[in-house]
Design a protein that fits this description.
alpha/beta; globular
Length: 345
Amino acid sequence: MKRFAFALRIILLAAACMAASTSQAASVLDKVKQRGVLNCGTDNSAPGFGYLNTKNGEMEGLDVDMCRAVAAAVLGDAKKVKFVVVTDKSRFNAVQTNQVDVVFAHTTVKPARESAITVDFLPIYFYDGNAIMVKGNKIKSVKELNGATICTTQGSATEQTLSGYIKANGWSANTKVLTYENLEKLFAAMESGRCIGMSTDRSALAAWKANAPKPDEYMILPESLDKSPFAGFTVANDSRWRNALRWITYALFQAEESKITSTNIEASLKSKDPFQQKFLGVGGSFGPDFGLPADFVSKVITQVGNFGEMYERNLGPKTPTYVDRKGTLNAPWTEGGALYSPPWI
């Protein structure tokens, strides 16, 4: 009996070691390095976040730049990224079936998405809220939409928020929620009169209004239905990959806080400041601790910029999708916002 118990312990120990070894070897981080290209899921119909510019054929937006930052950190080249278009409905399946390595697609962090769908979220990089946009100026408040048809995207957090709002406020049974595959079809539905209002994140509504042929024809109603913190996400239980992605995101926040930009990075690399030296991979580095190159932070800043530069490029005042950061949660914590990196030393 003792021999049997001893043999059983040996078998279980070997199985555990094999499982641990397999898990480590199967990290997405290693697969991306071996492949030499990052498969990044993002949208192509959300101006300011993930959008295909039909004039130059290039993908652009804050989510797109997050993909490029990861490619620069892991592979040393921001161009080594394959953009895989996902929708609100398909984005979780895409990461679970290994079609993509990570998703940045204006996705709201929700507990059920980590517990039931089983993905791991990364640090929050944008704070938004659900709202409703209508055509014309007759409707002034969300409360006036009781009994109307409202449109949103399939599988989005907004779909659940709308249903909850209608039920909580005891709206008429005539109130309907129609769903569409993406924002482009959603906007077209409102244009054609199939719904009185379209609902999604306030930033996305502002972008569609700004890019409409006649922006003054649309009104975003003042009420916010919910809060929507955006984060990237990846497959659950791959801590090696998740940790690398988390600290790449934090590096973007920290670089902005430390005022290290794509234009002054060369001077920063010559700094005598021990923190800056290690942060940028000069004289020691955090990179190998995460399975990343020693100079991964400087590669990201040089090629993509810090988070503030990314924000200005896609949502800043010189863009048609302007979303003011000042005095909002989207400002760095040093300016009263909520974007914050843990200390690096």
